[in-house]
Amino acid sequence: MKNYSKKGALSLFSCILLLTACEKETIVQTSVDSGPGSTTLFFDARYGDADFELNKAYDFKLSNATGQFDLKYEFSQLRYWVSNVRLVNAAGEEFKVPESYYLIEENVEIPVQEGSFDKKYPANKREQVQISSIPAGDYTAIKFAVGVDSKYNDNLTLRAGELSSLNGMAFENWMWFTSYKFFVVNGKMTWVKAAPEAPASQTFFWDFASNNLYTEKEIKLDKAITINAQMKSNIKLELDVKKVIDIENPWSNRLISASKKELMTQLKDNLLTKAITLKSTSSTAIAK
Q1: Which of 107, 114, 111, 59 is closest to 80 using CA atoms?
Q2: CA-to-CA distance for 168 and 120, rounded, in angstroms?
Q3: 69, 70, 188, 189, 197 from 194: Cα distances, Å
Q4: Tens of each residue's pLDDT in the chain, 288 residues
Q5: Strand partners, 120
Q6: How far is the C-alpha of 74 from the C-alpha of 190, rounded, in Å?
């Protein structure tokens, strides 16, 4: 009886230790899972069904009241500000990403301030943004703006995120450096069959800006993504450049900027209502 009691006591003690260990492990795991996480936001540039590339010829055909256009476009710049990013969780609560001003771009080398002091912004391709320190939760939508809000757009001396007038995304001859360019697309357009004695090709410079064109966009995710310290997630968006450049008379409007407010507005509307769409989302556990 005495030996049996000792064995029983040891077994009971072992069970208590095992249960305690399991309980502690569960508490630690829950604590880690509820920690903040991160996500990667992609902006994949496309031209119709093709991948977007600089210095590559793309077909563009258009028929409307102003005529028939059979052109080829070659691009040297595609640049725009993504700002004030917010993630919306399943309860409708918003997490505003601090100082979220990101320059998304594909561009050749750019002289800064018209080449003053021999400054040049290097050629670059940037299509993704890493967002960290996001409160743990399930997220169902993302909100952001294309452009820069008036607080920073009216005062280029203020700094937040990636904002700077030295990256070629501020107006150099308009309003004396008091505002940013929100969106820029430049390059060359060429007639497939040019009319006799007419120019076969010309460069084009299109952009939009100004506080009244600062616009936010909300994109509902196809499924909720889980963000926490143990998960890896992605939000992939597409930008179809072909839909952005769809204006009525492109050949006669090789320059679109502050002097053509209606066309600036059309570029903005094309971008935000037609061109930027959700491609896919994913959320997977981080391998240990």
Answers
A1: 107
A2: 9
A3: 10, 9, 14, 11, 8
A4: 444 454 444 444 444 444 444 444 333 333 345 799 999 999 999 999 999 999 999 999 988 887 788 999 999 999 999 999 999 999 999 999 999 999 999 999 887 766 666 778 889 999 999 999 999 999 999 999 999 999 999 998 899 999 988 888 887 554 444 689 999 999 999 998 766 566 789 999 999 999 999 999 999 999 999 999 999 999 999 999 999 999 989 999 999 998 899 999 999 999 999 999 999 999 999 887
A5: 111
A6: 8
Q: Which two tokens stand for residue 20?
A: 């305690």
Beta strands of the chain (E only): which ranges?
A: 37-47, 50-51, 58-64, 67-89, 94-96, 101-107, 110-111, 120-121, 124-126, 128-134, 137-146, 181-191, 201-209, 215-227, 231-240, 255-256, 276-285
What is the rounded CA–CA span in Å between residue 125 and residue 110?
13
- Dist. CA 172–CA 46, nearest whole Å: 29
Q: Which residues contact 35 (CB under 8 A, 6 or more apart)?
A: 136, 228, 229
Are 163 and 42 contacting, i.e. CB atoms less than 8 angstroms apart?
no
Q: Which residues contact 232 (CB under 8 A, 6 or more apart)?
A: 283, 284, 285, 286
Look-up of token digits 């595609």: 78
Contacts of 204 (CB under 8 A, 6+ apart): 186, 187, 188, 189, 250, 254, 255, 256
Query: Could you identify the residue written with the tokens 């990667």?
Result: 40
Neighbours of 98 (CB within 10 A): 10
Domain ranges, ordered by start, for the chain: 1-33, 37-285
